Amino acid sequence: MDKLVIDGPSSLSGVVEISRAKNSVLKLLAACLMTSESVIIEAMPELQDVKTMLKLLKHLGAEVTTLPGTQNVKINCEKINQWKAHYELVKTMRASILVLGPLLGRFGQAEVSLPGGCAIGARPIDIHLKGLEKLGAKITLEAGYVRAEASELVGATIVLPFPSVGATENIMMAAVFAKGKTVIENAAKEPEISDLGNFLMKLFPELVIEGDGTSTLTIHGVDRKTTKVAQNVTYLPIGDRIEAATYLMAAVTTNSEVTLTGFYPKHISAVTHVLEEMGANLEIINDKDHPKIKTKKYLKPLKAVHVDTAPYPGFPTDAQAQLMAVMLSATGTSVVTEHIFENRFMHVPELERMGAKITLKGNAAVIEGPCQLKGAPVMCTDLRASAALVVAALNAEGKTDIQRVYHLDRGYENLEEKLSQLGCVIKRERA
Ligand code: EPZ
Questions:
Q1: Atom of ligand 1 lying closest to residue 311 CA
Q2: Are residues 273 and 377 in the same domain?
Q3: Atom 14, ligand 1: which residue's CA is nearest?
């Protein structure tokens, strides 16, 4: 297993182009199952999770080709010849569960391995399944698989007990071919949901989805057999707001001057507000065509803050671990309270190996700063915890060996290239 060796402390400078959003692309790919026409997803990020989703689509019968000399991927799901997503694939990537809604909508049946838990929590899918049942699906659980069948899906009003991102997406995709109107109340509002809604309306020009960006989504279903299906759709997904937040925090914690492009700053306004409250000096350019964030040097030490994670537009749980690394360079006692997942502090023991002083009290972490971290061998445990170790290593004195880098490869495209271009001394070694 590869490891990353970072020689800190680092001072960064230059421009980093943020890749397309992993947490949007995975759903757009699942949605391709709904049309028999070819679709091109542009600037597909080269991530392990994307490779897994493409493998799953091919396993179901899709044709997948990367257009030569580009990262644009053409997907054709005309010849889907089976509706079962096997455990071997699903266990490596939970987002596979998002093929459930599309397969059910288009073929009236789907069988997907239960994704099981992961490092950060049990990750149940009860909200997904209850929503699909409300649309008329018959759901059975058997031998670790969830089987969904429906001769016809009928629109309904579905109130989510929690604004689950995945459940909102699965229900939204199934509702496209449901008869009549589906209203999802307490829907998730993450930008990736809007991206999926825009994509679906591009695939099916007669489809109307109302309430974009709000907690109430209304999907006016179309008739699968007669609706107009767009041909040669090409789609550029949104930039990855969590990757952007990660690089932003790397720049702020090292007091560097870096420009981040290729994403919408407004998608991480909760993050920029917290960093500015700490004393970061950010220039935020929300220009429609060339949005960017520039970090400028700040003169006074960063100040400690208290942050609670929350569904969008609150502070993203996916950026909580990385923020903790920034808090270690701030003066005072910071607190991070995690409200979304039950076990999302796996980075804490690893940060402590680097000299961090962090006390856990239930779902709250108390971080003492400032703390001069020392390089040390540390272990990746999950995607965002690993990102926190990278951010911390940039500020640590000496070498940090970050092991089990496959966790990072799931969600950060060309990480070492991007960081070394910014001036970080980093290399990947075969462990
Ligand atoms: C998506 O996961 C993201 N993954 C996660 O990013 C992100 O952390 C999460 O949304 C929250 O923003 C992808 O988009 C691929 P949820 P998802 O359903 O859809 C509970 C990363 O690092 N819940 O909003 O699984 C659940 O247990 C990943 O890129 C139920 O109880 O998140 C959790 O506590 C990690 N029942 C909470 O809701 C359900 O049926 C949020 O889950 C579904 C969820």
A1: 12
A2: yes
A3: 23
